[in-house]
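Hey team,

Filing this mostly as a record. A colleague (T.K.) asked me to run one chain through the structure pipeline before their review meeting, and I want the input and output archived in the tracker in case anyone asks later how it was produced. No errors, nothing strange. Just documentation.

Input sequence:
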Amino acid sequence: MSRNDVGLTGRGRVTVFAMFGVVFGYATHHLDQRRIGDVAVVGPLTPGVEWGRLWQMARTCGRPTATDHELAQWILTQATRSFVCGSDRIAHFQEQDWKLQPGGKRVSFDATYANRDHLWTGVLTVEGLTPDQTAERPTIYHA
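Output structure:
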């Protein structure tokens, strides 16, 4: 696990979904042209929500002794669930520009998890989203 001191930009598939009232984005990034070493990028899109909220949600929903690697797996599972099943999906783009701001958290998986080698989290922006799409949603569940 390490701090994400550099930002990351990309263009590709992006899934936008809500979880516990907050809107998140999930994108993938390839480290090179061989498309080996896939990075999952997950972060809040709701204005004013910091990336640490995602990790707080994972900790609240996980077991008390969960490691950062287990919490990262939980985060990636939620993002993948929205992509594959459409759970709480707000939008899906095949080709969209996105940017992960510096200052988040990165976790490298010991073995590939959900077809990803790394999870990078941080505040995310996705081109083309409207304020209605990124606004916090009412929810009866809190994490």
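Quick notes for T.K.: The first strand starts at residue 2 and ends at 4. The mean pLDDT is 87.
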